[in-house]
Amino acid sequence: MGREYRTEELAERAGITVRTLRFYRERKLLPPPRREGRIAWYGEGHLSRLRTIAALLDRGHTLGGIAELISAFESGRDVRGAAELLGLEETLAKPWSEETPVRITPEELADRFAGEVSPENLATSIDMGYVAVEGEEFIHVSRRLLDASSALVAKGVPLAAVLAAGREVRAHADDLAELFTALIREHVLADVLRTPADELTAEQVERLTDALEQLRPVSMQVLEAEVAMAMDRRVRREFEEWQRTRAGSTAEEPGD
């Protein structure tokens, strides 16, 4: 029969809590244990199943999707279709951003934003989710945003103004994300949203997964191009306005 484990021992070997183990069992993600009186005994198959669940969770799958795959295995249904459904779920769950968090000490933060790290600015950064406190250090959510904000401050822009602009940018970014989400929802996922998960065909899932993977870089290309062209237009207008103002002030100078 191989090695057997009691509940606490199995949970420890799998790296989870006893409560999580019982939750998985209630969700029928685990087969029932062998019982000997009031003692539940689990085997190597249970441990293997728990490690599989952990691996799938790490890849971004939900417990519902994992349960679908397990159910397909156990009932002899189309396991390939269930696995492809998990692939679609993984594609949907995959983060679109590729930001790298930065661990930074209070001293390093103060050096980056010389004279600008006030309690108010720090509280705003934490409230916006830019910065989190971990022990005696800070974790900034994005190296790119950290570098950009410190560059603006180095050029003389107050950190409070940078954070205020960040709030406005986030609001516009949310609106743009909703626009792209609506496009995907209405034109790419419409048939999926109308079809029960267990009725999706393998071809349907594969087509949608490929489409979503292609939409990631496309959406970023559109946003980057539009923002760059908007900056071109804005900077050109600012320069033209500056030239008109300068020409007007020169014309008004005495002695002309």
Automatic annotation (TrEMBL):
Xref: InterPro entries: DNA-bd_dom_put_sf, MerR-type_HTH_dom, MerR_fam
SMART domains: HTH_MERR
Domain HTH merR-type span(s) in chain numbering: 4-72
Keywords: DNA-binding
One protein family per Pfam: MerR_1
Protein name: MerR family transcriptional regulator
Species lineage: Bacteria, Bacillati, Actinomycetota, Actinomycetes, Kitasatosporales
